[in-house]
């Protein structure tokens, strides 16, 4: 039930041989020097650190950023750069202002793992419409608020 495409393995040699095309495109398209330098810096870091980490795909790098980055703002910036790099490396796409598959959207991504497992179970087993289950549970919970026990005074 995840919001991103199937993970594709990284090909560091492909990135190493083609990243200059990405940077050239960005310069010609009028991207800021600061943004281009940020992308270039992340590419250089990925290429130099890959031997130490042996990442299988870009999602693993993103998880590394999430664990190691000090501020939320810095993490989001690095994730945006990584999304541009990933789309170019794996799909040959130049930046177009859209979010990459690394940026997860929707309520599902905000659920705690236990609830994600429950939702995944229902979708995998196609046993019941998940929206009917949620509606019943919400209605049931709502009714419980008014079923308070009464104690006879006497």
What would your notes on this structure say?
This protein has 154 residues and is mostly helical. It has two domains: 12-91; 111-144, no CATH class. Helices cover 63% and strands 0% of the residues. It has helices spanning 12-28, 33-53, 58-68, 72-91, 113-125, 130-144. The longest helix is centred in the N-terminal third of the chain and has 21 residues, at 33-53. The chain is elongated and about 50 Å long. The model is unreliable at 1-5 and 135-152 (pLDDT under 50).
Output the keywords.
154 residues, 0% strand, disordered C terminus, 2 domains, mainly alpha
Task: Provide a brief overview of the structure.
It is built from six helices and no strands. The chain has 154 residues and is mostly helical.
Oligomer: single chain
Helix and strand pattern? HHHHHH
Overall radius of gyration: 23 Å
Unreliable stretches = 1-5, 135-152
Structural class: mainly alpha
What is the count of DSSP helices, taking H or I runs of 4+ residues?
A: 6
Number of domains: 2
**Overall strand count:** 0
Major sheet characteristics: none
- Please report which band the strand proportion falls in: under 5%, 5-15%, 15-25%, 25-35%, 35-45% or over 45%: under 5%
* Gross morphology: elongated
Q: What's the SSE blueprint?
A:
Layout: H1 12-28, H2 33-53, H3 58-68, H4 72-91, H5 113-125, H6 130-144
Helix pairs in contact: 1-2, 2-4, 3-4
